[in-house]
Amino acid sequence: xxxxxxxxxxxxxxxxxxxxLGHVAGCYLPPDIxxxxxxxxxxxxxxxxxxxxxxxxxxxxxxxxxxPPQEIVDRYHAINTxxxxxxxxxxxxxxxxxxxxxxxxxFNRTSDSEHKRYVQENFNSLLAAGLFEQKxxxxxxxxxxxxxxxxPDRYVExxxxxxxxxxxxxxxxxxxxxxYESYELQNPRSKMNPDSEIEIRDTEHFFYRLDRFQEALEFxxxxxxxxxxxxxxxxxxxxxxxxxxxxAVTRDLEWGIPLPLEGDKWKGKCVYVWFEAVQGYYTxxxxxxxxFAESDDWRKWWCVSDDGVAPRHLYFLGKDNIPFxxxxxxxxxxxxxxxxxxxxxxxxxxxxxxxxLALETNVPAMEYLMLAGGQFSKSRKHAVWLPSFLxxxxxxxxxxxxxxxxxxNHDTDFNWPDFVEKINSELNGTYGNYVNxxxxxxxxLGGDNPLQIHDDLDRCNDDKERLEQIYVxxxxxxxxxxxxxxxxxxxxxxxxxxxxxxxxxxWKYLSEPGPSxxxxxxxxxxxxxxxxxxxxxxxxxxxxxxxxxxxxSAQRLWTMLGQTGNVSDASFESATDWSTPITWSTxxxxxxxxxxxxxxxxxxxxxxxxxxxxxxDDPGHGVKGSGxxxxxxxxxxxxxxxxxxxxxxxxxxxxxxxRIGTITSVExxxxxxxxxxxxxxxxxxxxxxxxxxxxxxxxxxxxxxxxVVFVANLEPRKLRGVLSEGMICAADDDDGAVKLITVDGxxxxxxxVR
RNA sequence: AGCGGGUUGGAGUAGCCAGGUUAUCUUGUCGGGCUCAUAACCCGGAGACCGAUCGUUCAAAUCGAUCACCCGCUACCA
Length: 754
Description:
six-stranded antiparallel β-sheet; 21 helices
């Protein structure tokens, strides 16, 4: 188990916003823990990732801010790189301290010119191997003075050919759910620039022949099934059962990697982001080799050896990314092998053999970390961003809490009271306090190395055995990617230490100086102090085994124990090396400090308020997903109108027709979770129907018969299939409370409000 | 409504794929102890009809079916 090549692949964060705690728990902390663990085992670890810097959402952000896309990605690449380093992730140094043959790490970026070059190379070889098919598609094109551009389906809206609803998207109507070809859309327009002229043009695109890999992938999935977690098994199975179809690898885009093809018809086309970013695992390893090692060294981490041994590949990512890594990426890898082996269109594809690029060993995907009570994006004030967290707290407190609360099997919550409680009672009470006990008891004995003379391992066989047992359990858990459980095992050592000290009552013997020759001590005293000495060994065990989880405090402890160098360079096995001579240092300080919940909550409140003002346009809200990127951000950016506080003139205000109505019936919306369908008596014979999103705040009974204020001249709009002819007014506050506006006394329905 | 995940002592969780002693651990709570240590630590107790129902089985938290509720995504909001 020593000297193995292990490639740790970390999902590429999208450089469109800062990382939040959800990202950290989902896909940035686990790989760091694992990489540190593999290193400590003596394995050769190469860790690769970087910023995903292409794609439409970034251009949208750039457009909104009026800056070039490069400026956006430069900004967030810098912020996120720094935040990950501050968290203690071993992205630096790039070369392993044990030597280049042990690997290292590179946090690269997809705008790297070498990355581009490799992607283009791969594109060409896959093309040559007949793994692409070419299709002509119809796509909307926005005609502009500066040249114009193709519009993705999401950026086109018009009237639905089926229900006539305005606001339907290019390929699907949200109201009636129909999908159609984009040319069927009526009165299409660009969502970004509604006034510009748009037309349908033919556009040529390449598709990757995923379908050709169906069989190989099924075989691969069966092979990996026993190792995969349930969520990975389920998601992969679902994809394979649906049947794989060719998938587009090119798009009409400006910001990305251009197609490496000659000819006008390929101008303005880029490689699809998914196709390109996912190759980062491979290009990053190559680039690392070129910059820091021999140019062929990457093969040790990527290629199956001549005798058929594959390097271990571990991919860390959020659950939304699973199929990309168990289906699509393996298909690309096999495609590259196919091409590199000079095979073509006619030849069957196959699983990797000697010399080929290897497929993944495991994909320990995490579920999501949620923010307490944070359901809606407007509760953005609840979001916890990594950079701002690290400004205020010891990174190890975060690492501890996220590890012990890791969303391994299902979504988990981040909340401040729980965070404070875990840090205070577990990290401080059990671990910190244990260390502090040993250190201060030792110091009270006095001398340069007070515990060394009491070292008597023959009296501590049970204790040795217990720690050895914990060590076995710990490594088993880590090997199975059960980080939560693993950290519990580490903590159980501290707990055992507290019990051992408690039982040995060494404080009884502090005040008796006794003879200088320990052999003349009473047996009780020798027994007691030998346990205290073993307490030092247990603390050293803690330093080594907690290092992957809590690197900063492990190092502090290591130094306090009088050990030299870096604890991260100590081998994991040496945690139970009882022959190590006991050392001591003059430094002794608490490992962690207690947190004050009240103060934190107050600070959060202040921070949240200021944040709401300054980053109102930030799209990366919420602490939800760990890898969910394009979709939500795209939407937020698209829909968020620029905010400004200009004064409303009187006429404009009067154009809003507010009227009084009585609620006559309330029903659940047949097709929406949060909507009621409300009938109002608005003074007319037939009344009117309004959809209201009040389900979370009001029961049917509470709403019935209330006289409320509603907007009468709002453009009628279908909400999930039901026509809503107005809007019921309600007030909401920062705490998320929502209350209907009612009338003081009674007045006839239909009365104007002004 | 579509897709995915969940429901286990007050809270958070393990166990479920490969059914089988007293259902795990952390925290909280109650009682006791200790005083070296950060209102800390140690010992002991109480506390769970494992979401509901039906089925398979000698045996179900675990397998199958149905239902309910919760969460996320899609979507939606005042």
